[in-house]
Amino acid sequence: MYHLFGCTRRRCIKTVGVLPILLVLVLVVWSYYAYVFIFCPQIYTTSPLQAASYLLLCHAFLVPFAWSYYLVVVTSPGHPLQMDETTPACETVIDIPLSDGLRRDVSSSSLDNGPPPLAHMYANEAAVPLTRSNDRGYEDVALGSAEVAHGIAGNRSLEVKSDGKRRYCNKCANWKPDRTHHCSVCGICVLKLDHHCPWLNNCVGFYNYKFFFLFILYGVLYCLFLFVTLALNIGNFNDFLMGIGTMGFQPTFILIVSGVFALCLLIFLGVHLHLVLSNKSTIESMEGDRRVRLPDGSIGTAPSGNLYDLGTRQNLVQVFGKRWQLWLVPVHSSIGDGHHFPYNRNVYRNLLAEA
Ligand SMILES: [Zn+2]
Ligand SMILES: [Zn+2]
Predict the structure, then answer these.
(1) What is each CA distance from 317 to 67, 278, 324, in whole angstroms?
(2) Could you tell me if 68 and 215 are in contact, meaning their C-beta atoms sit under 8 angstroms apart?
(3) Checking CA distances to 180, which of 3, 34, 196, 253 falls within 20 to 30 Å?
(4) Locate the Palmitoyltransferase DHHC domain: which residues (predicted)?
(5) Helix or strand or coil: residue 300?
(6) Is 189 a catalytic residue?
(7) CA–CA distance, 166 with 225 (Å, rounded to integer)
(8) Closest among 31, 23, 30 to 226, alpha carbons compared
């Protein structure tokens, strides 16, 4: 059923998807109220200094946590094209065979420089109208049939389909840049798609992945802080089991909830730390081998996941940026534009050697 009360299926999902966000907001506001307005005043009566330090640290973790969460929810993960919903989807995939001239151009390129940019490949094609390109080299409007036939939608593409042709999304009727995948929930291709997160009602992709990581990181710190400080002042354990404790019901409830969330988020943080350090998205960590276009027109098969592994430090830089001072600050500092990615030259050379 694609229409319900005049809504498209995608809009209905997006509307209902607001509920998990409201749940997160309720839990965060409730935890803040119980901690700051109930628990801290209790501590203040016996130790004002301790209460002040608790208040200070609580805000030090909560502010970047809430800031990151806000940004990851409202920031678009990035799309190859900002598709208009009224644009009819193209049903036909047009394959692009390389002409003899292009093959000569490709085979004469330096292997050490990796795959040649498509813009260079097509530079000798006088008939190709390089129109309406934005600064990424991608068309920022729907492609015309002539443009599609000449394959000038992108200026550099490494990954190809199993048959050696450029990756193309039938649903979006557009080329898929490297590491782009289609989100079935959002109904659109997403640059470097990691996953669709119901807690965010948004995809996690190239432009909001850093915010997502910091949201988990500060979420762990905030929940751990609440759990540890509340647990240190729990009083009689039997009273705690009865749900009243010396702190009252609400701080006791927040103690349990923060402990559960701290454990879940800690596991999630470990998984994503591993992914960041190896420069993989969640989807890529589950994918099989990836097909890579080689300069001679043949296809190489790269082992899953390590094509973009640049080493630990460079992998961190790709997500968090070159300035380490901004790594833990929820501002966009990731490297690149989400369309083109540096790749591991050794993996690529091995593919050339095997070809
Ligand atoms: Zn798509
Ligand atoms: Zn999505």
Answers:
(1) 21, 12, 8
(2) yes
(3) 3
(4) 165-287
(5) strand
(6) no
(7) 49
(8) 31
From ligand 2's centre to the CA of 291, what distance in Å?
25
> Which residue among 186, 197, 203, 223 is the active-site one?
197
Q: How far apart are CA 269 and CA 2, in angstroms?
A: 36
Rounded to 5°, angle at Cα 114 from 112 and 119: 130
CA distances from 345 to 100, 134, 162, 285, 310 (A): 27, 28, 21, 20, 9
Look up residue 88 and give its DSSP letter: P
pLDDT tens figures, 98-112: 333 333 333 333 333
**DSSP character string of 45-79:** HH-HHHHHHHHHHHHHHHHHHHHHHHHHHHS----
What are the tens digits of pLDDT across the range 136-174? 333 323 333 333 333 333 455 778 887 778 888 999 888
Nearest ligand, CA of residue 200? 2
